[in-house]
Write a structure and sequence with these properties.
The protein is of the alpha+beta class and 400 residues long. α6 (119-127) crosses α8, α10 (210-225) packs across α11 (230-236) and α10 (210-225) crosses α12 (241-253). The strands form four sheets. A five-stranded mixed sheet has the order 10-11-12-13-14. The protein has helices at 11-21, 35-45, 62-68, 74-82, 106-113, 119-127, 129-141, 165-175, 200-203, 210-225, 230-236, 241-253, 297-304, 362-380, 394-399; strands at residues 7-9, 48-49, 86-91, 93-98, 179-183, 189-193, 227-228, 258-262, 269-271, 284-286, 325-330, 333-343, 348-356, 384-390.
Amino acid sequence: MSSGRKGRLSISQARRIALAAQGFADPAPGGRVDRRHLRRVMGRLKLLQLDSVPVVVRTQYLPPFSRLGCHDRGLLDRIAYTDDEWFEAWAHEASLLPVGDEPLLRWQKRRAEQGDTWRHLAELARSEPDYVAEVLAQVAERPLAAGELADPRRRDGEWWGSRSLGSIALDWLFRIGAVGIRRRGNFVKEFDLLERIVPAEVLARPTPTAEDAQRELLVRSAQALGVGAAGDLIDYYRLPVREGRARLRELVEAGTLETAEVEGWTEPAYLHPEARLPRSVDTLTVLSPFDPVVWNRDRAARLWGFDYRIEIYVPAAKRVYGYYVLPVLHGEQLVARLDIKTDRAGGALRVLGAFAEPDVDHAALAERLSPHLLELARFVGVDDVSHGDRGDLMPALRAV
């Protein structure tokens, strides 16, 4: 894929490039999964999106499971929050990234500090500077959660509903890079000075210009996605659209990224020159709703013909597939979706609904999917899998 010339990719080729970039063509771990394997996953994905909804398991744990299989979930927490190899930042929403990427995000923090973004938080900083300074001083004394502030100053709805002024001040300090976040049990945020999370060697690195940082982030987006339209690459780190498109043009002109036509796409695709095209992809796994393969719903539709939305906020009576639905990846195709919930009290992974895509062999898919669901059950900490009665794939799953 390194000719530098615009070529044409079939939709199958584009899918295989995308999945290889995401690590689905990498060899499976030969033994126990260790931190080297999780570092490899992070190297492929570049970031892990965070989400607090633990319907199956918190979402940051699922992309490593999808690529590595069952392993100790605590390993991710130790890498991120004990060893501080990764840190929380606002990238593709709230995300974990390698600490070495901190300089690439400083331009965002400066814009926040200037009031160009997160204006409601900047308004607080302007109107309550002494209080914000006091909150930072308390964090400097010791890491703390918002509820542990000496004077949290609860307000009724003026800022954000019932949130305390202290929690909003901590949010502001996080956005401008004064503090960072670790996690305690039950995913509670613990705020600490960023300098006690990100190594001094990283903090001492020169600050790239916004343009240089955006170009580098787009290169990383291309490496992680394998192939994508302009909007796909820009969305990966949630860059400003107009600036992102300008940086993409510059990267193509410099030969850093290549363009191609993808079968069925109406706009050009972008690739990294080292994008890999495997002959095949042989995998069977469930994906988090926030996995990079599917988190951009428009790209999932263009690349896989997979019309996907998360229905958490849809009234129950109007849901098509269910509350928390995981796509199923089989080979290079998205072949099904499962409405799943972990019932910890009952010790079971409950498959509430199972729906196959058109032209999928239900029996063959169920044969491979059933043991994978048992592996997922072990991963989330329960012993059994139970099946409901919703969906055309469910009879085949129940029969296995």
